[in-house]
Design brief:
heterodimer; A: mainly alpha; 10 helices; 66% helix; B: 220 residues; 51% helix; globular
Chain lengths: 240, 220
Amino acid sequence: MSGWRKIAAVAALALGLGACATPTPEMKAANDPVEPFNRKMFRLNQKIDKYVVFPSIGGYLLLPEFPRNRIHDLLANLSLPITFANDVLQGEPKRAGQTFARFTVNTTIGLGGLFDPATAFHMPDHDEDFGLTLGVWGVPEGAYLVLPLLGPDPPRDIVGQAADIYLDPTHWLHYKQHIWWDLSRSYVALIDERAVSYPLLLGIERNSVDAYATRRSLYRQQRAHAILNGRPDLGNLPDF
Amino acid sequence: MRSLFAPIARRALLVAAIALSLPLLAAQQAAAATPAEAFVSANVERGLNILNNNSLPTEQKRVQFERFLLSLTDMHRIAMFTLGQYRRGAPEGDLEAFASAFQNYAVAVYQSYFARYAGQTLQVTGSTNVGPQDDVVKTILVDPHDKSGQQPLEVDFRVKSDTGRPQVVDFSVGGIWLGQEERDQFTAFLGQNNGDIHTLISHLGDLARQFKTAQQQPQH
């Protein structure tokens, strides 16, 4: 785990311990025993988005679409080895094959990942991470947790993110400026992601009765769906 | 890989935005194999006709689409579901007031996305029976102008027929069920407000008014 992630995790734990009042039945029912702390972190992250991330997005959006798409494609291609490793660990040979084919095509014909011809060749894209792999293996999500900077991050996904660092081939390339590569990649990935998601997030929050609960629900449903790897899960539908 | 900073994947956010606007999407009728599939297929065709009828004045189109939406969905049932545990023990008058406020809010939210997704299509691809008179109809969302090669989004409708006629009670886009999401936020809001349904009703009213005001402003 990189330095700043350790700091964020330790700070969150320290703040979380301070916020460990007895959970109400509502918090227990929502599997969110530290909800007051999580809501504080949610508001903090909203401020970080507003005052730090969003101004950066403005600069990024000044770039023409062509170089922005190259940055996005390159970042996506860099993450494919992690997706491939997790496909294998989940016992998904077909999806692993698709990921391998995408990586091969985009790294060669796509000039090192700067372009994405694989999508045009009908090689479908999908994301995987070790948090999802743990879910496939039956590990429960754990209590909901929101971390500063990182957002929703229940214990299963914290472990998953730490493991993904070691599944990333670039982690094993040793050179002096490694930390700067890590930080720059993370920052550019954040900006690239939020350039699309920030307006959507604002829209969702503006339309919500409770923006915090909305994000919690979306996060959980999205992760639960991703664990299914495209298989239907209609046995757990609620009673209307 | 999850972006280190990104709590929700980009696709999930797009999914969520689309989920809020789903009933406004146009649809293509496919060969329907079950009554539930036929219901979804035929009704989305109705929605298509309203959305694509350019001879209708905007306000008339809005009113017609509201009627369509209310005939397609069981709003009262959805409203009661979204209250979760707070429904139990609540006075009947409060529940009816909430159902009314919920309907007003839901229609306003869906209408706010009216223009954004018109022109996309839904194709029925099959259905699964999940209980007595309870089916999930599967469709895919197709943007005829999308050249990206991305896979179409999967959109599921939950159709219950135990009231004598089929009605949609929930739908999901890419695995996110909107009714469940609304229940999660309403119960969280009530948990923060001592379970006071009147506060929720008032808040829903404010949100609905905001949406209506935004819709009346000129589009850019």
